[in-house]
Amino acid sequence: xxxxxxxxxxxxxxxxxxxxxxxxxxxxxxxxxxxxxxxxxxxxxxxxxxxxxxxxxxxxxxxxxxxxxxxxxxxxxxxxxxxxxxxxxxxxxxxxxxxxxxxxxxxxxxxxxxxxxxxxxxxxxxxxxxxxxxxxxxxxxxxxxxxxxxxxxxxxxxxxxxxxxxxxxxxxxxxxxxxxxxxxxxxxxxxxxxxxxxxxxxxxxxxxxxxxxxxxxxxxxxxxxxxxxxxxxxxxxxxxxxxxxxxxxxxxxxxxxxxxxxxxxxxxxxxxxxxxxxxxxxxxxxxxxxxxxxxxxxxxxxxxxxxxxxxxxxxxxx
Length: 318
Fold this sequence. Notes:
By secondary structure, this protein is of the alpha+beta class.
């Protein structure tokens, strides 16, 4: 992570650690999640451990760690006695939502890590191997499905979905720092989308410039050989319009000429095809063939009724 990302994660952890629950059951639930934390990894966690020192001491001594931890304020304890410290020590099934969130907040601060590296959000909990599946199941029940695995003998419960991570952090109390995280994610997503659009437009422009260059060369070649003059009116019109506006798109050419875009495309394809497929590959032969076709056309015109003089009369003999 970059320095700014680390600072943002630290600010988020500081915001969560500064939450001071008003309910005793919430304080006990958060202390239970932090009961096995021996040393603080950062300043916010150190201050939280100091603030919950009495609750944590009671948890480690087996006082108040019972089936009522997290069950809600004012509810009676059903079985007072020591419980093992860890994920299984929390009674998720009978706990109220606010106690669950307080416990999850403590679990994240004591056993969780958040990474924003490269615009990818990654949050994971590092717990005892037998507790990974249990924690993942509880999170799934809360509408926050997570994956889990065993890594070097420890259980790892993971989210790699930015929306799920944002929902979790918001539910456990993150506000201001989370807004900054989300703003950065939106900014990165917009930059990524903009880059993709620019790259696509650049590729399209390069293809259009390349096609226009080929078409201009083909038009010049067919004009020099005389073959362009033999083409239909639409092909000649499209060639002339392309020569006058090399940068125009097919749609712009079609609008200018008052014809369909498909007709423009077919005309340009015909021009390129004629220029690229001489009989023997020699442009001189194309000019020779064009001259031959012109001569044959003249002979045909001379023999036609229209070429026999006015009113269909024959030409005088020499």
